[in-house]
TrEMBL record:
Name used for this protein in its record: Putative protease
Molecular functions per Gene Ontology: peptidase activity
Keyword presence, Protease: yes
Top-rank lineage group of the source organism: Bacteria
Alphabetical UniProt keywords: Hydrolase, Protease
Transmembrane segments: none
Organism: Paucidesulfovibrio gracilis DSM 16080
Cited InterPro entries: Peptidase_U32, RNA/ubiquinone_mod_enzymes
Pfam families: Peptidase_U32
Length: 433
């Protein structure tokens, strides 16, 4: 297939609140997905009914699609929440102010959605664990326009499934997660959180016990036919006070950056980033990296430089990045999180343009004005440095600040033309002050 005729996939980005929605739009998302106050799998990252309309309108006004999440698996007492959510969506849809589609996984939720709002596009969540073409066709029979496939699928399996979906009339859209946290359980079907903390993951209440620190009593396992080769081994780390712990259950994070061209050629409709509970600083860097990578691919293969985008993605990582199940020939970690001395924390976000080169910023990380170099996160993967003499920070009383702490607001004086509302500042690797 000629690269110039490849279908251009949609970059689909999480929006856990209004700040994250604005960040996703600014840094290049084609679409966002967001949840409400019930029945989405991130209970701490939902919009309430009073600002949902605002979120949908903001996305639409910026040419970005917005998909609404009803992807939890409700138990019997929670069915009333399904009707409440559908009431709200029906009202917004009638006014022309609703989402561009709804993401769901539970057959009961899908059944009610198709009865109440048959004209609203249905996207089947990855939680439905779709792993073959017959399952995809089943969801199409239920009215689905798009299916987000299970993250456990390999590239050859995806290739076959995509070929089937392309031949349909109209084609069934296929969506794939390309970046973010992976679950130790099959498509998130984990009961550890429910067992330990009475917080069911499939109801959006996961407390992530797979990320907890566990004390090691010693374990190294060999499989019988692979003698002399460790199959699983707990790796300990010192907590600083003499105790040894491990995060044995924690899955590596997914990163399919190197397969973007393959996905374009195979006709993948949407490339999805995980992370509605991640910070807006994380979202800015990851969205900018993938949006730039896709733009460069559109401009020609020679413009695509994986190491440039990977440097941005690694800077956001707290766990090793891997290809997950996608490439069965390669299980080694793609990249490791940076050591503390090489980390480039995001320092602040511009909240408002006050005019005349004055900006109100919210500080995200300790900002020592004279302690380290700073760079601006300009959309389009531009990272110009900001010299000390080019800016100043003040408090609300107009007093100069040399250090600003997380959570504080400050007044930034800077007339660099690149600046705009919603942009971030980051600690630089090297820059001559």
């Amino acid at each position: 297939m000629d690269l110039n005729t490849a279908r251009e996939p949609e970059l689909l980005v999480p929006a856990g609140n209004m700040e994250k929605l604005e960040t996703a739009v600014l840094y290049g998302a084609d679409a966002v997905y967001l949840g409400g106050n019930a029945l989405n799998l991130r209970t701490g990252a939902g919009f309430d009914d009073s600002n949902l309309e605002k979120a949908f309108t903001y996305a639409r006004n910026h040419g970005v699609k917005a998909y609404y999440l009803l992807n939890a698996y409700p138990r019997e007492p929670q069915l009333r929440h399904v009707e409440t959510q559908l009431d709200m969506l029906q009202k917004l849809h009638a006014l022309g102010r609703g989402p561009d589609g709804v993401i769901a996984a539970d057959p009961g939720v899908i059944r009610r959605l198709r009865k109440r709002l048959p004209e609203l596009p249905l996207h089947v969540s990855t939680q439905a664990n779709t792993m073959n073409s017959e399952a995809a066709l089943f969801w199409r029979d239920q009215g689905a326009r798009r299916v987000n496939l299970a993250r456990e699928m390999r590239s050859e399996e995806l290739k076959e499934l995509l070929a089937v979906c392309r031949r349909l009339d109209p084609p069934l859209e296929v969506e794939i997660f390309i970046h973010g946290a992976q679950c130790m359980a099959l498509s998130g079907r984990c009961y550890m959180s429910a067992y330990l903390n009475d917080r069911p993951g499939n109801s959006g209440q996961c407390s992530h016990p797979c990320r907890y620190d566990y004390r090691v009593t010693g374990l190294r396992v060999e499989e019988e036919t692979r003698k002399g080769r460790p199959m699983w081994e707990l790796e300990e780390r010192d907590d600083g006070v003499g105790e040894q712990f491990t995060q044995f259950f924690a899955a590596e994070d997914l990163c399919l950056l190197h397969y973007l061209d393959w996905m374009r050629r195979m006709g993948v409709c949407a490339l999805k980033i995980e992370g509605r509970n991640k910070s807006s600083a994380y979202l800015a860097q990851v969205t900018d990296a993938y949006a730039s990578a896709l733009r460069h691919l559109r401009e020609g293969q020679s413009r695509f430089h994986p190491e440039t985008y990977l440097a941005e993605l690694v800077n956001t990582a707290s766990r090793p990045l891997s290809r997950g199940f996608f490439d069965e020939s390669e299980h080694a970690a793609l990249a490791q999180p940076p050591a503390a001395e090489y980390a480039r924390p995001v320092l602040a976000r511009i909240e408002a343009d006050l005019g005349n080169g004055r900006w109100r910023v919210e500080v995200k990380h300790r900002w020592d004005v004279l302690g380290f170099a700073v760079e601006m996160l300009v959309p389009g993967l531009e990272r110009p440095g900001l010299a000390v003499e080019e800016f100043g920070l003040e408090n609300e009383q107009g007093e100069a600040l040399s250090v600003v702490h997380p959570g504080q607001k400050a007044l930034l004086h800077c007339d660099r033309p690149e600046l705009r509302k919603g942009m971030f500042f980051r600690k630089a690797w090297t820059f001559d002050l």
